[in-house]
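Case 285 in the screening queue. Each case pairs one protein sequence with one candidate compound; here the compound is thiamine diphosphate. For every case the pipeline is the same: read the inputs, emit a complex structure as C-alpha cells, and attach any notable structural observations.

Predict complex for case 285.
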Amino acid sequence: MTEKDYLTTYKSTWCPGCGNFGLAIAMRKALAELNLDPAKVLIVYGIGCSGNGVNFTKTYAWHSLHGRAVPTAIGAKLANKDLTVIAMAGDGDGLGEGMGHFIHAIRGNADVTYVIHDNKTYSLTTGQAAPTSDRGFKAKTTPEGVIEEMANPVSLALAAGTSFVARGFAGNAEHLKEIFKAAITHRGFSVVDVFQPCVTFNTVNTFKWFFDRLYNIDQDATYNKNDLSRAFKESLIWGAKIPYGIFYQNNRPTYGDELPQLRGAALVKRPMTVRDIDRLVKSFA
Ligand SMILES: Cc1ncc(C[n+]2csc(CCOP(=O)(O)OP(=O)(O)O)c2C)c(N)n1
Ligand code: SF4
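Case 285 output:
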C-alpha cells in the first residue's frame, strides 16, 4: 500500500498551506505503512475544516455531529470490532461541545484512536477563540483577548487516565506518521493532539511559531513513556519551549475486553435473532 491508495478523487477545499494537509498525509502514510485495507478502516469526523477531511481520505468515513465524533466512533467499534476506528475532530469540536465525551471515552478505554486537529481556533466558522486558544488571544469573539486559561488536551488526557497520549505537529509529517502508527496499533483509547496551524484565521500560532518552540521528547533517550508523573510534568511545559512526541503509554483492558457480550465474532457478523421480550415487559407490570 502507498499513500495514494488512500486518496480520493475529490479536490481539497482546504486553504493553500493549511496544516490539515500535513496531518492528512501523515495519516494516509501511517495507514499505508500499517498495510491496512481501506475497507477495514473507519474514520469518524466531526464538523469543521477538520471534518471536511471526510472527502479526501479513502477509507470508510462518517461525517458526524459537532462534538460527537468520539461517541460515534466508539459505537462503531462496539458494533464491528474488526474495524480499525479513528475519530478526528477540531479543538473547538472535541474540547468544546465534545469535552464530556472526551473524558468519558478515556475512562472506558475503547480501542479507538482520537486525533485532535488543534489549530487553536474555530476555523470553519471564520476564526473565533477556541478552548485551546492561549490566554490573551484576540479573535472575533474576543477583541480584548481571551481571559480564560487554555485547555491543555495532553495534560487533561493524562490526568483522566488515557492509555496512550501524544502530541504531533503537522509541520513534521514524518514524525506525525510514526505517532499515528503507534497510536493506531495501541490497544485502547489513544489521544493524539496535533498542532495544525490555520494559516487563514490564526496569525499568532503559525508554523514558524511552533517551529521556534517545539522540542521532540521522542529523541530524548532518558524519557520513559511509562512514567505518568514525568509525562504529566512534561505536559505542563508551555511557553518558550513546548514538548511534542509520545508522552505516555500503558496497557490496560479495553472496553471491549471487559464486555463478555463482545467475545467471539463481531456483533455485525452474528446472525440476527428474534427475541421474545414479552417476559421482560411483563416483569415491569
Ligand atoms: C451542534 C453544532 N454546534 C455548532 C456548530 C457550528 N460549527 C460548525 S464548524 C464550527 C467550528 C469548528 O471549529 P473546530 O472544531 O475547532 O474545527 P476547525 O474548523 O478549526 O477544524 C462550529 C462551531 C455546528 N455545526 N453544530
Ligand atoms: S480556514 Fe484555516 S483550518 Fe480551515 S482550511 Fe483554511 S487554513 Fe485550514
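Case 285 observations:
- The two ends are 58 Å apart (CA to CA).
- Strands lie at 41-45, 60-63, 84-90, 113-118, 121-122, 128-129, 164-169, 190-195, 214-216, 242-249.
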